[in-house]
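**User:** Once you have settled down, spend some time on the protein underneath, comparing sequence with structure tokens, and judge whether sequence predicts the tokens.
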Amino acid sequence: METLDVLTLQKQSANFYYENALSLIRKGLFDDALRALDTAIVFSHNTPFYILEKIRLLYYHGDPDSCSQFIISQLNHLYKVGNLYTLCRSLNYLQQIEHYDLETFQLLLDQCRVPYCLANCYPLILRRRFSMIYKLAKKAMVQDHHELCIAYCKLFIKSPSIIVHYPDVYYLLAYSYHLLGQLLDARKYYQCYYELQPYDADAYMNLGLISMELGDYKGAIPYIKKACLVSPSHYDYQLYLGECYYLSKKYKEAIATYETLKKERPDYLQVYFNLSHIYKKINKARLSNQNLKLVSKLLSNTTE
């Protein structure tokens, strides 16, 4: 109860100083208004709102250099705790003052640990053109600019109400992290994606592949089994499933998987090689040689 009273008091105090600031602005007492806004920022649990109000006051009634410096000092905080609109409004005020070229603006944002892609796409966000940002993210991925793709995608994560309309953003994020070798981040975002798209076999398969790359073959099996269930005609998934069973020393399950696959795809040479290897591993030389002979037969038929 005491905590609630303190929070209520702080909220009321922030509103009080904000209303006082508005009154002082109407009277033309801008320095006093700035001090009132600073106090509101200190008391508030919604600091981005009051920070943006201070930026507006500095922009319209203050010194441009002071406004610019204040915005730059708050960019990382606005990105971490504010919404995307507030951040982009602040960037708009900053650019109206400084008129940065694109490269300089990107470098500044990067130094402030803010996605540098905002330098050229913040106007799209202010106009709510998220479909254009999604296209830019896909373009970056196709061109193997994976860090840029990640930067675009993270803008969607800042807007939960938007990302539900673009679930593929999680896939783009995961895929880019995967190719950059950042496997734990890739796994996290593949999981986010399949929660929204539970019938995408590729997502399950990629989670399985990441587990395999991390050496967790047992952990990969459930994901690859789901991929096989969703897409039973994708025979490569079954091949990976057999490999995970083998690497987990579940030889019986590996053999059963490969034998089933052999019936479904009798021309799949890799299956025969894998079976021959497993049978040799468990000291069943006759079955091992039998599968090697089948390989020779298939290769001979292919040559003919």
About this structure: The two ends are 86 Å apart (CA to CA). Residues 1-9 have pLDDT under 50 and may be disordered. Residues 2-26 form the longest helix (25 residues). DSSP finds 18 helices and no strands in the chain.
